Amino acid sequence: AKQPVRVLVTGAAGQIGYALVPMIARGVMLGPDQPVILHMLDIPPAAEALNGVKMELIDAAFPLLKGVVATTDVVEACTGVGVAVMVGGFPRKEGMERKDVMTKNVSIYKSQASALEKHAAANCKVLVVANPANTNALILKEFAPSIPEKNISCLTRLDHNRALGQISERLKVQVCDVKNAIIWGNHSSSQYPDVNHATVKTPSGEKPVRELVKDDAWLNGEFISTVQQRGAAIIKARKLSSALSAASAACDHIRDWVLGTPEGTWVSMGVYSDGSYNVPAGLIYSFPVTCRNGEWTIVQGLPIDEFSRKKMDATAEELSEEKALAYSCLS
Ligand code: NAI
């Protein structure tokens, strides 16, 4: 039998945490034959709620769940974890300046980076979900220099899945038949959802999305803004931000990273830029990637038209500014 993997979820008493931990305990993240031990971290004001989540996990009697650690101690939370999903963070409240929110998150990610570096299992894979996700991941990377940069990522899979969902709705095809959308850049409204290389499986073979949709104005306009603004639309409808879709996307992200992407399919992940596609090196930027043997590789050589180039540069520009702001909060 396989040894259990310890999976850390920070902010586990929150909304996404509540949707995510049962998925992990059911094997949605690491597969139906991989036992897990859940490590849940939150802050003292949420300790009682966190303990309630632990009680429910016990009550759910998940066969794959071999243990639950619920704690407000970051060292205990990080010890021995092979996967870390960082959902905890400081939300932007009404009237708060961007810089103040950034200062709070920079200090959280700086200290959690050190704890992971010292106490996580070797080769621990880290996924940052909490916003600003790309920049939080960058801070984590900078303050955990012994964790290889290829092990630190941020979540843009939700945006990727939203793009697939919009195409599937528009064409009235199954979402599982749509693939190879790309989210470029920041997990923010400056992201560029790109379907220039996306395809749909049809009875007569794989067809480009553009050829099937036959409406460039929609693809270059409303499609992009719908995906960019989907988070806000969910908040408007639910009075709460996306949680089940975010949790599901976090499972997709880790599952594909660990178990591999299907042949001929790529997914979007926020990863450390090596300068591919002329994206400035040293940003955490969402790229199309394939995964094999537990490692991601940026898909190379895709032709980029002028329209795409501008949008890819604009979101890179925003990330450079966020990076500068984050550094200004450190000093
Ligand atoms: P939430 O407010 O319901 O939960 C956040 C939890 O984090 C709370 O329980 C809070 O006590 C905890 N927390 C705060 N500081 C912490 C710390 N230092 N250590 C550990 N835990 C801490 O928020 P929700 O809805 O679960 O969202 C979580 C984050 O995910 C937010 O930053 C949100 O913006 C982001 N998000 C990102 C998405 C993505 O696609 N990348 C999608 C949806 C949300």
Automatic annotation (TrEMBL):
One of its GO terms (molecular function) is L-malate dehydrogenase (NAD+) activity. NAD(+) binds at residues 11-17, 42, 105, 129-131. InterPro entries: L-lactate/malate_DH, Lactate/malate_DH_C, Lactate/malate_DH_N, Lactate_DH/Glyco_Ohase_4_C, Malate_DH_AS, Malate_DH_NAD-dep_euk, Malate_DH_type2, NAD(P)-bd_dom_sf. The active site is at residue 187. Coiled coil: none annotated. Residues 156-324 form the Lactate/malate dehydrogenase C-terminal domain. Belongs to the LDH/MDH superfamily. MDH type 2 family. This is Malate dehydrogenase. It comes from Eucalyptus globulus (Tasmanian blue gum).
